[in-house]
Every structure is written in C-alpha cells, then in structure tokens.
Amino acid sequence: MFSFNLPCGDFQTLTTLTKSTITFEPPVYEQRYCAAIQILEDSRWSAQIKKVVEFGCAEMRFFQLLRRIETIENITMVDIDEEILMKNVTCINPLVADYIRHRLGPLHVEILKGSVADASEQLLNTDAVIALELIEHVYDDVLNQIPSNIFGLMQPKVAVFSTPNADFNVIFKPFNTLLPNGFRHDDHKFEWTREQFKSWCLGVVEEYPNYMFSIIGVGKPPKGFSDVGHVSQIAIFVRKDFLDMELVEPLNSSPTFESKEPYKLLYSVDYPFSVDTRTVKEKIWSEVEFEINRFKRAQDISENDTEYDQVSGYKIPIADLLTRIQHEDASKDVLMELFQEKSLEVNDDCVIIPESDEESNDSDPGDLCDHLSQEARFSDQESEEECWDAKEDS
Fold this sequence. Notes:
Layout: E1 14-17, E2 22-25, H1 28-40, E3 51-55, H2 63-66, E4 74-79, H3 82-87, H4 96-100, E5 108-113, E6 128-132, H5 140-154, E7 158-164, H6 169-172, H7 194-207, E8 211-218, E9 232-239, E10 264-270, H8 280-300, E11 308-309, E12 313-317, H9 318-324, H10 332-341, E13 345-347, E14 350-353, H11 357-360, H12 374-377, H13 381-393
Parallel strand pairs: 3-4, 3-6, 4-5, 6-7
Antiparallel strand pairs: 1-2, 5-10, 7-9, 8-9, 11-12, 12-14, 13-14
Helix pairs in contact: 8-13
C-alpha cells in the first residue's frame, strides 16, 4: 500500500444524523465524483492521462466533470445496459459554450456497450480507468475477470474503484433504508466491509505486482460513529513507475484476446478545439502587449504620475513584465530581442512605451493591442490600478 491524500485536501462535508434520517451534504455521489477528478489531476501523473475509460457509466453524470480536464484527449464510456446508454447518448454532445470557448486540445468521446470483464482492443492504450459503484453489481464470475482485463490487458497508469462500505450499514438499519436483500440497492450482489475491500485490493496487487494501492473514503460518518468509517470506500491503484518505483514485470506490449468480438460502438463525437499556431516569441509578445495596455490604463486613471515621463512616455520595469508573464517562460534576453525588433527604447532596465497620437488627443489609451477583447478592455480599472501600483504602497 501507499499513502494518498487528495490534492485539494479533505472535503468540507457535513453528515447530519437525526431521529428520522441521515443526510450528507454535499450528496455522496458528488463527493465520489470530485474525489475521482482530484485523483486524475494528481501532479504525479495528470500530464500522462490522455485516455480515460469509465466502466458502468450509466447516465453519464461523471462525464460532465471529466470532460472539463483539458489534458484528456479521449474518453470512452462503457456500460452493459444498451437501453440506458441510448437514452443518454446526447449527454456527451458539446454544449453551445464549447463552440464559443474551444478546448486547447482535441477530445474524442465514445459510448460503447460492453462488459468490464471482456477484453477488447478498443481498451488498449488506456491511461486511467474509473469504476465508481460498479463491482458490487456484478456476479462472482465477472468480478473474478475484472483484474485480468484491467491490470493484465489494459495496464493503466491509474485505476479508481469505489464501492459501499458495509461497516456503515449499522447506521442505516434504524431508518429501514436497507432493502430486503440486506443491501442499499436491489441489484447489489454484495457489499464489502473495509477489511473485505482491502483484502480484494491486496489480491489484485499480489497477482499484478506492478501496482500499489491506497484506500480513502467519502461520506464522513456522523459524530460519535467514527469507528464505522466512510459511507463509500475508494481504492486508487497506481502503476509503480508513476510512484518513482521500478516495475516488477515488463509491460505486456502484445496482449492476446480470447474473444475477437469488439465492444459495440453506439455513439461518438469530437469536441471543437483551438490550435495555437503562433511561435513562442509571438505568444510572449502578445502577453507583453496585454500587460503594457493594462499598465497604461491603470496609470491614465491614476492621480499618481510617478511612472510617466512627459518626454519619453511610459516607463515599465522589465522585471515587472517578467513577473507578470512568467507562465510563458519568458526570459529577459527574449524580451530584449522583442523590444529591439519593435524599435522600443530600453533605459535603466525599463522599457519606454511612447505616448500614441490617440492618447495625445485624449482618446482611448487601450488601442495599442487590437487583439484585446472588449471584456479585457473594460475590466475593472480600479483593480488594474491597484495591481500595478501595489509596489508603490509597500
């Protein structure tokens, strides 16, 4: 096992127990979804997660969060129930907002009918597997095949499983929320205690030693019941090479398939995305222009003229520009090259921005950058002035 903490910390959730009911705020399913997203966004492997397969996707609620991770390029939704899938196929379509604000990279989404126990070439090259509240719905024959399909064939970098914690059921019993089968859902074939779930995870990593696992939970117990654990337990399996450990066995680069029948493709869609063809210097100069305009507007509405030279124009410290565009990995040498190309004067480690004719005529000083949107032009001027002048108050 290894220790895992959610990148954003534990959820600030509230579990309330009364004489007649128990409530979770936010709902437990939302907590599961958010935990799975945080697991995928862990900095140790997030950049390498390009293809994600969700087994047991059903109504595809989790997809609405998953699709927002910009680095993911392929999402495959899999479920055995074709009727449910066909009722919800349109849930994966891009929204109007996706055509207004394009993704920064491609995203291809597929809906497949198939079983988590069946091997298929469509599952190859999967980086992450998500199976939330799935394993308790399958019979033993399917459950026994899941590890070989996921950890033997697919060999993802990360796999996330969640399942109900049977230890928590003692809290549900007084409210008669458990069904005649003794479980929380009439389709559950079992519900594991924390020890049973851990035992299953240990069996997986014993058979597939390239993986380690960690167990966390969501849905905190109410006050006074901490010994029962969380209402839902989550196992995170991570391939050892993403934990800075050596693989015990070489990865299977040529898997074989007992069944040649592929999953049934029901629907697919590609999301619109933008391709930035600018050079690195062009991107940097675009950011510099934006910061120059923001600086000028802040100074023009300020009563403090200390940064304006009536003869030379606006003097902007190069160090300040570098701080503001550090996300572009710009260097002082690159900025000096750009200033020379744009015929801008540099003096005392400041770039001199001459006053434009429009500004001399009291026109809008924000016309230096034609690429600025109206939103950027008419942003909160007081905030901009505060931002640029903060150093003068220190």
